[in-house]
Each structure stands twice: as C-alpha cells, then as structure tokens.
Amino acid sequence: AAEAKWKEGLLVAGRQSSLLAQMSFQFLMVSQKFNVVADTAAMKATIAQFESERRALDVGSAKIFMANATTKDIQDSLKAIKALWTPFKAFLESNVTESPMKTETVTTLATMYPPILKVAGALATRYVDAANGAGVSFSGLQINTASAQSWLMQEVALRASLLNLGFDTANMVTQIESTSIKFDETREGFLRGFSHKCILQEMRNVTDAWSHLKAILDVVQFNKAASDNEVTHIRTQMPKMVSAMEAATRAYATPPTVCV
C-alpha cells in the first residue's frame, strides 16, 4: 500500500509539467478559434486538474502521501509552485477570450510559463529523491522519465502554436526539433529496455500515435513555419498522443498482469 502511494505521488508530480504545457496550448487554441467552446472547456478542465492534483500533493489524499510525510524539499517546491500558479491561472482565465491575441499577451504567456514549469520539474525530481530515500523497490526515476514524455509532447504542441503566431520563430523551430529528438530517443530507449508484453503493447500505441504527429512536425521543421492547417492537425492528434503516453506511463509504474 505504501509503495502504491509513492507511485501515485510520482505520477501526479510528474504530470504537473505536462498540464502546464497543455493548458498553455489550449489557451492559444481558444484565441485562434479552431473550436472556441471545446478548447475553452478543455483549458478549464486542465486548470481544474492541475489545481486538484497540486492540492493533493500539498495536503494529501487517499492515494498520495501527504507532503509533510516526505521531505522539506517537496514542501518548498509546492510553495514555489503555489506562488507562481496563482498569477498564472489568473492570467489564463482573464485573457483567454482575447481574439485576435495581442503580441504582448503572447509575450506574457511565454514569460510566465518557464518559471512555473521549472519549479514543477523540480517538484517531480524531489519526489523521486524522497521515494528513493524511503527505500522503495521500484525506479522512481524511470516513472518520472516516462511522465516527462507527456510533457515533451505538450511542449511541442505549445511551441508549434507559438510559431504559428509568429513568436520568436527561429527559436521555436529549434525547440520543436530538439524536443522531438529528445522524445524519440527516450521512446526508443524504453522500447529497448523492456520485455514486458503489456508495456511493449502500450509503447506500440505510443509509437503509432507518434508517427502521425511526427509527420506533421517534420513538415513544420522543413518549412520553418506552422500553418493553421498544421496546428489544427497537431491539436487533433494531441489527445490520442497523450492518452497513449499516459497509459504507457502507468504500465511502467505498475506492469499489468493482463494486457488490455
């Protein structure tokens, strides 16, 4: 039971970065009017999930160890996230209806996002350290690395949408390329490192979803631009990609006895 709580805590802590990138992407999607109603609802749901899971890590839940039962480093990271989260959440909610989105609004998003992403990443790392310090029998680093795959995909989508808006274009193209390479290298590493049938099955689903997304990203990188059509395709592919990666991550954490 104790190890199950550690695993859940690691999964939730690792997901914080992914949710931050996801809500930022959804924020931009609303302003670009691909599907205002659906994207607004999706952003609100992502914000609510982030808030709920942040609080669970902070004060505890039935599934997760309370922060004060782990380490001061975790508590410090949670305080740092809360301090940045309050203004970031307010910014998203108060500017989401702006269309077309002003350059200064996009710049503000790009300025506010990295600091909170950094502390969210630190929280995940500190949760790994705490789990290891508690003597768990599984690899916390492996779970965290798998969780980071979902963030990498959300990050690519966010960078593509910023590129579509003409923000810092050369840097966005470079980041899309480097993030895609990092995802691919880690994905291949997991494929080589596991023989469990159910994990490999989940990874095949990831690989299939990734092949569709990568085809779009290759065009973006070649053209050094992201058209509305390409961003629309990325937006369509992301739920499949994230769902596949989430299932694979849970399989890494607790390998199923029966493959679905």
Structure characterization notes:
By secondary structure, this protein is mainly α. Helices cover 82% and strands 0% of the residues. The longest helix has 31 residues, at 103-133. The protein is globular and about 50 Å long.
Q: Any key phrases for this structure?
A:
260 residues, mainly alpha, globular
pLDDT averaged over residues: 90
Which class of secondary structure composition applies to the elements? mainly alpha
Tell me the fraction of residues in β-strands, as a range. under 5%
The H/E string reads HHHHHHHH
Looking at the structure, what is the overall shape? globular
What is the element layout, followed by pairings?
Blueprint: H1 2-31, H2 36-59, H3 72-95, H4 103-133, H5 140-164, H6 169-193, H7 197-223, H8 228-253
Short structural summary:
The protein has 260 residues and is mostly helical. It is 82% helix and 0% strand.
